[in-house]
Amino acid sequence: MSRPDPLVLIALVAALLGLGIVAGAFGVPFSLRSAFVTLVGLLALLQGLRYAAVRRSTPRRATDVEAPERRHRVPVPGDDVDEQLDVAGGWRGRGVTVREKVRDRLRAALVETLVLRENYTEATATDLVDEGTWTDDPVAAAFVAGDPPPFSLRRRFALFVSSESAFRHAAARTIRAIDDLGRDESTAGTRERPGASSRDADRPERGEASW
Amino acid sequence: MTPFDTNRWVGVDGAALLVGAAGVLARRPALLLASVVGLAALAAARIDEAPAPTLDVERTLSDDAPDPGDEVTVTVRVRNVGDRALPDLRLVDGVPPALSAEDPARLGTALRPGAGATVSYRITAVRGEHDWEPLVAISRGATGSRERTAEIDADTMMQCSPELSATADLPLRGLTTQFSGRVGTDVPGAGLEFYATREYRRGDPVSRIDWNRYARTGSLSTVQFRQERAASVVLLVDAREAAYVAPEQGVPNAVERGVDAATGAFTALLESGDQVGIAALAPTECWLPPGAGAAHRARARDLFATHPALAPTPGDGRYYASVELRRLRNRLPADAQVLVFSPLVDDYAAKVARRIDAYGHLVTVVSPDPTVESTPGRRLARIERENRISRLRRAGVRVIDWAEGAIDPEIERASARWSG
After folding, report:
1. Is the pLDDT of residue A164 over 80?
2. What is the DSSP string of B231-256?
3. Domain ranges of chain B
4. Pairing with B40, which of A61, A69, A89, B372 sits 20 to 30 Å away (CA)?
């Protein structure tokens, strides 16, 4: 036989006691009409508040059915990078590893873009990235070189009050700078490009490669 | 499924006690009585149970073999065949993941024993074989305090085969097989395009004699044409999970666009006398060796429509990259050209194209562009894809970078570039 619940025992004793009082079996030091009724009311109030609090912490449950009317969702290319940028900006431990991963990927994409769009050799492109002379944007240059980003005070304040992390902001600026490479021929031609003379001589001509 | 509490009535006991307490403290019997109503409702909710839905489901389609883009009306009839009434019944139909419904595929109702209800909705057909998933029935008691779910199967299948309509002629490359066809070669012989003249030899047909030259110089010469031969082409569709990407929700993903382009290319090539085969980079094996003729055409149509590897949604299973590549290499006929349909969103597809090229097959990549620039990450993906295309072009692989819209203008633009 299982042990009786102590709460049930207390309730039983309380009920018997109550019946006894009402039947006049025991002498009671207070009036049944006023103080006792008020006490019962207060107890009910307390218990009611306790149950109401339970409601607040109990979520409603229902079977979750995904909208079948919608098509199967497929990702957009680059969503994984955006996710990594969100994680990298946080304070969690994973952030450090992810930051390194994102930086490496951006660096690889930058070197490849410099080689393909601006016709540098890979070695020259790597040097440009290390020196930070591939772009006019100091934040982008510092980001891929692994240096702390030289944010202005105004920008620091803006980042402090906004929800965007400094890492995400710097990464986004770097991606924009990479994308701008070789886009505008007039500026690209006038910009001083160290190492441009040592382009790969074996590379096929532009006309040949532009299939 | 076992029933569970919805927690819908949690807190009503608290509210009843508070009202009761207010009645006691303010000495108002009416308030005290009101709290009894709350407690009665609570008692009803406690003893209420969610009845198990025993349903008979029948699903009918207005057309179970539509063409892509057709509108199909799906009608689901549900009947309560149990002996208990279902006071609160919610039905959600299992629309196949590749299809989108234009109306709600759900219904909320109450069913007496023997009573029935109907829900119908419209869907737009897309290529593929679509199996409906079970209908989900969510049942609650009258008070809604308990809930249980049941899945009811009603086998329904829709097969949507693509029209084999040809796209613009895909420019193929160089000499391939010994059969006559449309690929120009550097071999003189029968054909349409002028190739060269040579000295007349006995037996040359009179119609081939260059009479203008004879009138000018007095010596006989024969005109030669560029011989045209048939090509053996394998269409290789990248249908790995990584290739299932789209610029936004609700538009065809890169695999669907790739298969559509492959379908068009298949017909165009077959009609011009080439031998065409189909393969896929996918977890499920997919291979149709190059061939020609009506039977081959029918086989291909069936494969494009129903093969799980080319389905509009990614399949289960793991893709073994090196094993699959080796298998493909062993299968490719030595003289086959390969048309790769891939969004090129990772390095693997570009590597496959270059590897096949290195094996000695002429490779052309048709790449549906799924990239956008709306966020930094997406912009990076676009840059990386552009770089992959540039790398392939530098390696001598032809690439058609197919933005949105029809593929024909892209092919024409590419052909003009290649012949220029």
Report:
1. no
2. -EEEEEEE-SGGG---SSTTS--HHH
3. 4-47, 55-160, 186-228, 232-417
4. A61
